[in-house]
Amino acid sequence: MYFAALLARTEDGWEASDTELDDVETLDDLADLAREASDDDDTVLAYIEQEDSWFGVVRVDGEEDPRIYVSDATAASRSSYGEILLTDELLGRDPDEDLDMLVDLDGTEEGEPEPAAVPEEDESVPPGPIGEAGILSDLGVSEAQLLTLRSDALSVIAEALGCGDVLEGAR
After folding, report:
1. Has residue 112 been placed in a domain?
2. Domain containing 68: what range?
3. Disordered: where is this region (predicted)?
4. Contact 157, 141 (CB under 8 A)
5. 3-class SS at 116?
6. CB 77 within 8 A of CB 83
């Protein structure tokens, strides 16, 4: 089970709302959704969690590129929402590398069908946290504190931002 929320900084403080990610397929889609939550080019945090397995924070400051933190990259890689956050850039992968591995576009070699591949663990996804651990340090959540969060991370983040009550109202 997933939960997603947007925390948008406004002139009156932080506003929190839960959000649907059904139409979000890429990090750019998520960043656009976050930007729509703000009237100005203020800071917006998009928060995604899968129960107590992993959580991710995407920070969007105006038109700047989104900044990302994921608490457990391996767990997130097994999730469709986690895959949105685990970009090639974040993982240090070359997106064109997979194209070099294609031998035959129709899936056959010398007319014989390829045997079904057994999915392997993605070795390019490191275990543990990945991304910018200092993403919230100027907002009251230190790098060390973010790295230790596991369960109920959104509540801890919202309390540090001063919008815990607003978030609970949105849930």
Report:
1. no
2. 2-93+121-170
3. 107-134
4. yes
5. coil
6. yes
